[in-house]
Amino acid sequence: MLSITSPLFQAYVKHNASSEGGKSSNPKDTAAQYVKPGEVHTNRGVTWNTYRSIASKLGLNPDYNSFLNLTKDGAIKFIYQYYLDNAKDLPDQTGIAVTESAWASGGERGTTNLINAVNSFGKNVKSRKAAAMAAKTIDDKKLAIAVNAQQKKFYEFLADKDPIQYGSFIKGWKDRADKLAALIQNAKPAAGLASVIIIAAIFFLIRQGKQG
Questions:
Q1: In this structure, which CATH number among 1.20.58.2050, 1.20.141.10, 3.40.50.2000, 2.60.40.10 belongs to the domain 7-211?
Q2: Cβ atoms of residues 70 and 44 within 8 Å
Q3: At what angle do helices 72-87 and 7-19 cross, to 10 degrees?
Q4: Which of 41, 130, 199, 202 could potentially form a cystine with 31 if both were Cys, beta carbons 3.0 to 4.6 Å apart?
Q5: Which residues are 23's β-sheet partners?
Q6: What is the pLDDT, as a whole number, of residue 196?
Q7: Mean pLDDT over the full length of the chain
Q8: What is the rounded distance in angstroms from the CA atom of residue 175 to the CA atom of residue 87?
Q9: pLDDT value, residue 95
Q10: Residue 105: CB partners within 8 Å, gap ≥ 6?
Q11: CB of 98 closer than 8 Å to CB of 113
Q12: CA geometry: angle at 78 spanning 72 and 84, to 5°?
């Protein structure tokens, strides 16, 4: 599980902020259905619906004024909570890709993308639990790229299905998916326990040699 301060999660935070940094009241966004016409429905990437459902869990006031005054650090806490709720049991890079899918299109979409991506590697899973177990047998980077590709296909499906509602968003959505693919591609795998033990043993031997 990634910590909130881990390099990979912090890279994802920057990715998220580059696409969703400010307030939005765009009436074509699906988040607009949860506020009155013209009101802000998204702040720092956090929708009002998401804010009021998670705020109390984070020790924040679940009222609209607090939502409007959400800080950068507060937004990061929401993103991390989304990661914990949707992907903490997954390999690191795959977890980020599933978090992105859930953040953009809801937890069910994140699960669907994970299952479809896992099955693209010759598996035949049907549940979230089975997909999470199978994910551990697949190369993390390759699976994360596959999950992200599923999300990109979903964006294209939405734009084709309703070009009036979503056509203006598709370029930004696809650019965001491409940027996440690059982030995943460049991510360095976390050192496993065995690697940590080996490194510690090497330092110990070096210190013993110096003392001798």
A1: 1.20.141.10
A2: yes
A3: 120
A4: 41
A5: 43
A6: 42
A7: 88
A8: 23
A9: 97
A10: 151, 154
A11: yes
A12: 140
Burial class of residue 179 in the structure, from the number of CB atoms within 10 Å of its CB (0-12 exposed, 13-18 middle, 19+ buried)? middle
pLDDT on residue 85: 92
Spans of the chain, pLDDT less than 70: 21, 189-212
Q: How far is CA 39 from CA 4, 74, 104, 178, in A?
A: 31, 20, 20, 30
* Cα distances (angstroms) measured from residue 79 to each of 50, 58, 143, 168: 10, 11, 21, 25
Extents of the domains making up the chain = 7-211
Tell me the pTM. Answer: 0.83
3 φ/ψ sector (left φ>0, alpha ψ -120 to 50, else beta) = beta
**Residue whose structure tokens are 């360095």:** 188
What is the rounded radius of gyration, in angstroms, for the C-alpha atoms of the chain?
A: 20
DSSP 90-131: S-HHHHHHHHHHHHHH-HHHHHHHHHHHHHTTT----SHHHH
Q: First-to-last CA distance in the chain?
A: 40
Q: What pLDDT shows up at residue 206?
A: 54
Torsion from C-alpha of 193, 195, 196, 199, nearest 10 degrees: 160
Helix (H, G, I), strand (E, B) or coil at 60: coil
Structure tokens, 87: 């992907």
